[in-house]
Amino acid sequence: MNTSTLATFLRIAGLLHIVLICAGASMPKAVQLRTHLATLPQFIRRLFTVYYCFIGLVLTGFGSLTFFFAREIAAGEPLARALCVLLIAFWSLRVIAMAFIFDVCPYLTHWFYRLGYHAINLVFIYLLAVYVFAAWKGGKF
């Protein structure tokens, strides 16, 4: 695979971060988040909201950096590889959480939610694979 092809895969990864933000925006309705948060103290509700916003900000940053600097990442520059290592850690932990921590089965009540859940998991795996490949092969063509 040449640098140009890897850059294309990285741009797709950058756009997929935005897709995840859109999916995340639909999640509160799917899991009836307001109902669950209503029973919690105000501090915990606000803490959860701040964490939710920070995750959105992080995904926006990761996606933007990946999309706009895809050529540099594909070229294997040292800072780009460091970013890839960070993203590998991030997406590895997310895949582990998907597999062993989160039980979303009670919320997959409609075929559309089940399809979306599996699609999002494929996105997580794609992101992890692209960043592993970029860190490993970047600049070695």
Which features characterize this protein?
single chain, 141 residues, mainly alpha, 83% helix, elongated
Detailed description of the structure:
It contains 6 helices and no strands. The protein is mostly helical and 141 residues long. It has one domain. Helix 1 runs antiparallel to helix 3 (42-68), helix 1 runs antiparallel to helix 6 (111-137) and helix 5 (78-100) packs antiparallel against helix 6 (111-137). The chain is elongated.
Gist?
The chain is mainly α and 141 residues long. The protein has six helices and no strands.
Number of strands: 0
Secondary-structure element order, as H and E? HHHHHH
Chain-averaged pLDDT: 92
Task: Provide the gyration radius in Å.
Answer: 17 Å
